[in-house]
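Quick one, probably user error.
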């Protein structure tokens, strides 16, 4: 049994770089997209961030990929795009039943939301 709470806390610290206010704003937007529209929309949202938000989007993506890999919910795939990566999460894997795929997706989404919320709190604590 894996305790996901410390993984979420560790992931939160990776999301916040040297600009906590910008990180807090983007994390807040990201968690809203994830909660309302799902994992794939979250990936598309991060991929669409340009210029002044691209660094924060990359930090968030890296932190989420790490927690999902550490939790065994996704394979490490650093070379594929954000849209591809988050789109693949909802697909059935190998001999996995559709029910098991749905359970994995729901757990993945819940873990992502927890990590993002912790990231918001972490950014606030750093002066965001």
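Nope, works fine. Designed sequence:
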């Amino acid at each position: 049994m894996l305790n996901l709470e410390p993984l979420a806390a560790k992931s939160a610290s990776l999301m916040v770089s040297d600009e906590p206010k910008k990180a807090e704003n983007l994390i807040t937007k990201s968690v809203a997209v994830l909660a309302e529209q799902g994992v794939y929309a979250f990936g598309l949202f991060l991929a669409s961030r340009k210029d002044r938000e691209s660094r924060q989007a990359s930090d968030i993506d890296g932190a989420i990929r790490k927690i999902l890999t550490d939790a065994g919910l996704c394979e490490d795939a650093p070379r594929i795009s954000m849209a591809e990566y988050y789109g693949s999460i909802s697909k059935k894997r190998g001999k996995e039943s559709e029910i098991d795929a749905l359970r994995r997706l729901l757990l993945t989404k819940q873990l992502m939301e927890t990590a993002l919320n912790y990231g918001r709190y972490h950014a606030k604590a750093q002066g965001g």
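The chain has a mean pLDDT of 92.
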